[in-house]
Amino acid sequence: MCFTCTYDLKTAKPSFGTAHAPVFKQRKMFSMQMSKLLRSVISSASQVFTDIPTSSSNQSAFSRLLSGPNQSSSNEGFTRMLESTKVKPLRPLINEVRAFKSETEIACMRRAGQASGRAITETMRHTWSREKDLWSYLEYQIKSQGCDTSAYIPVIAGGKNALSIHYVRNDDILKPEEMVLIDAGGEYGGYVSDITRTYPVTMKFSPAQRDLYTALLTVQRKCVWQCREDAHVTLDGLHEFAEKEITHELSGIGFDMSGRAIETLFPHHLGHYLGLDVHDTPGYSRKTPLQIGHCITIEPLVEFTFPIAIAGRSTFEAWAFELRTVSQCSEILASTLRQKRLRR
């Protein structure tokens, strides 16, 4: 319902209509009734779970700045009802519920992953000279293959652009001698996928490119095999395992992996939880042992900005290779669950 205002050109004064006054009055009465009901519910509760800050002192200075000068008064009625002794954070409870996917949720994620994988594969069948053209066709394919929409703005990064981990300009030229990194995924039924593939623009590997690609593919497959409940592995444990395997594989093709080289070449964590959001369940510990129903990404990465020669291969620079497996952990765990049920 709109509130109308007329402007008198003679008097140069605005005139506000009163037709909606009863509506405003009703809203105020409804607000008072809800406040009374909420106060009654809170007073009778033994514990209250909420992430609404009970005072502005719990917020960062930046959050208080964004909230504006009247932020504290907007929540004043609610925060006065809360007793600090019985207020507990809500996020840990939500994370516990969201971290474990049901078979129906996993089915949605698998469908999103399969459709997204087909979309990327179909996009790779064509030769592209511009990132934005590849992006446009990929977006079309994601929906054509059955997804509702894209899960996030994709990364379409050729050459050195792939060194920016969340590069989303997607407007540069793709050169024939370069690699192109695609980080994209579709959404189906509210659940997302997250897939990364790196391949030559011309679809023909140079010897050095093939060596590095094969090394990372080997690491990825080993990491996926670790995603079993009986392995008692955590996301942090998987990351440490990936660091050791990447060090071993790169040493085998001529990299100097002494010192802290792995931290430079593999600068971010191996994976994250996946579900309703790309980075699902924020704050959920990566030290939690993976169990049936957990869904994670496996994304080993090697990137560097300096010229390098691998075991006599041709010299190259500014490359980022990333391979990512989505929902495979959940599929393996779901398979384990089915096998246990069959044994019973």
Describe the structure.
This protein is of the alpha+beta class and 344 residues long. Helix content is 42%, strand content 14%. A 3-stranded antiparallel sheet has the order 5-8-9. A 3-stranded antiparallel sheet has the order 6-7-10, covered by helices on one side. The longest helix is centred in the first third of the chain and has 24 residues, at 21-44. The model is unreliable at 1-14, 308-319 and 325-344 (pLDDT under 50).
What's this entry about, in short?
The model is unreliable at 1-14, 308-319 and 325-344 (pLDDT under 50). This protein is of the alpha+beta class. The chain contains eleven helices and 14 strands.
* Basic shape: globular
**Given the helix and strand composition, which structural class is it?**
alpha+beta
Low-confidence stretches: 1-14, 308-319, 325-344
**How is the biggest beta sheet arranged?**
3 strands, antiparallel
Rounded to the nearest angstrom, the distance between the terminal CA atoms is 60 Å
Question: How would you state the average pLDDT, rounded?
Answer: 80
Radius of gyration: 27 Å
Roughly what percent helix? 40-55%
Number of strands: 14
Strand content: 5-15%
Strand order in the sheet with the most strands:
5-8-9
Compressed to H and E, one letter per element, the order equals EEHEHHHEHHHEEEEEEHHHEEEEH
